[in-house]
Amino acid sequence: MTWFLLISIGLYVVLMGLFGIGFFRLKTFAAQNGKPKTKFTLIIPFRNEEENLPALMQSISKLKYPEKLIEILFVNDASEDASVTVIQKFILKRKPKDWSLIDNERKSSSPKKDAITLAISRAKHDWICTTDADCTLSENLLKNLDTFIQNNPSKLIAGPVLALPDNRFFISHYQLLESLTLAGVTMGAFGMGKPLMCNGAHLAYKKAAFEAVNGFEGNDHIASGDDLFLLEKMQAAFPGKVHFLKNKTQVVYTMAEKKWSAVVQQRVRWAAKTTGSKNIFSKVTGVVVLAANVSLLILFWMLFQSESGVFFLILIILKWGADEIFLYQINAFFKREIHWVYLRLMAFLYPVLTTYIAVRALFGSYKWKGRTFKK
């Protein structure tokens, strides 16, 4: 047992160090002024998002990019609330150019992939952008993407997504801290030349490239993963043309969940898709992270049950130290406010949630937008 604890924590510390190095190696993209050229189709699948859609649409209307170069496609996935009415009223009142609302056509076990595939088949422009209905976009998002595309041969470009916390509650700060960590790991992996994940809430790719890899074919039996599996396909088909746009203003913000049950369901959904990944590095990373968090739970218990308490305490400090150094490194880039109390609470809660979510993802089901899905 002692050797398992030592090896798992040791591998985790090395892995986080590698991600940290990769983060520094990934070049920061400096925003530039120039004439916009790229035409984008922005696709937003939605289901029961009447509360979040107004903020998203406001952020879209404030994008600093020529309207004539943007097409907006909202795809209604059988919403049961007033989402459609909210969009229709906004369009009627603001009269934005080239905004359309279409209904999803279910063809697989993945409603979201069906929605995106349908929208792409109707898209007028060469570059596809996807986001989620519970997000808000940075005003320079398309401007920066355009400049990046003009200067870098690209087929797929990922970007950072951070949770937008409600300052009153730990639950929202937990999600901010976790989103910072995930953004850092994502960028670190790209910097290492081994992309292992991205987020569909901030993703852009060429329509022709999507069609060349047959879209989501082969993984549309898995409900989520419109981002992960497409990244793997694109990386295999177009090496050197899959990028991450590292810029602190190039952020998509997603609303934090308000209930712990919703946080768990969301994380189970994320974890469930990774079991279908073909990326060996991704699988190794998942095993190392899970083993380290299980080890931390064991260490908490053994700390007061053994005469080797000092040794176990050192391993706990190593794990916590690796996490905090990495998190502060990432936050030095994004400059979000982190309260030390929340950071300490997360250190205790995270291994419990991670272990529970992994078990649920492997053996259970999850709910998503009022529907139940199996792994």
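Second entry:
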Amino acid sequence: MTLLQSFALMGIGIVLLLAGAEALVRGSAALALRFGITPLVVGLTVVAFGTSSPELVVSVKAALQGDGGFAIGNVVGSNIANLALIIGVSAALRPMVIQKKLVQWDLPVMLGASLVLVLLLLDGYLGRIEGGLLVVGIIAYLIISIRSSRQEVRAQKELELPAEVEEVLAEPNKRIGRYLLLTVGGLALLVVGADQLLEGAISAAERLGVSEAVIGLTLVALGTSLPELATTIVAAMRDHAEIALGNAIGSNVFNTLGVLGPAALVAPMDRAGVGDDALIIMLAVSVFTFGILWRGFQTHRWEGALLLSIYALYLWWIIQ
């Protein structure tokens, strides 16, 4: 397989992953609503997990194939992209006012999850016990978030829901079979897309003479972060700062706890190819972003430009 064919296969895999995630989110959200789960809970759980499903499926399949470095690299690279690239682009496009809750709750959780992941990977291995700890963390995060959001709903009488939930609520009632088909079809596309992406990435790594972890930290991480990038840019342009920032930060929490946790439970893995430098960069970018968002509870365009510069330097450092 030529290098061009490898990249083409990766592109096909990413397209299938994105299409599968979209179908899965819409189908599963509609099913959950039809079975009586409140829109708020659906938005905080089903949609959140659905948008992280590309990273989850890719990481689980990579772990099962013994490519732990690829699985961990995908998450570490996605976390760096979510902060340096996605928040950077959003801040550069339009300054954003930051909600106090985001700084007081979600940002510390994100920073704590990143620190825990780095500590767990110090020995170069992520086992089932560590995976179980991460899964407990995402469950606790969801429970606390749901309770907090319900209190906010009672206080404000309303809370903006994810677009996917709003669209499903606006649809006329359709037969449940359609939603089942969307859900099953979405899962199938995710599995096939992960296969294509992994095959193309492994081939590209061999052709370029780099480790699979490097491909996971860069191309694959960026590809699986495309949904978050698109959602965040649109939200920022529409002056929905809480959605733009919450989407990027929440995605990091889900990637760290809700992707690597289940992946390690399914198949313990080592971080072959994901060096200390990548982990330090992820933690440093998390701390730096925390400092930017904490200072003054608003972003500025120069801060967005600085984050984008950091992402460009990160890519140069990993690839060179």
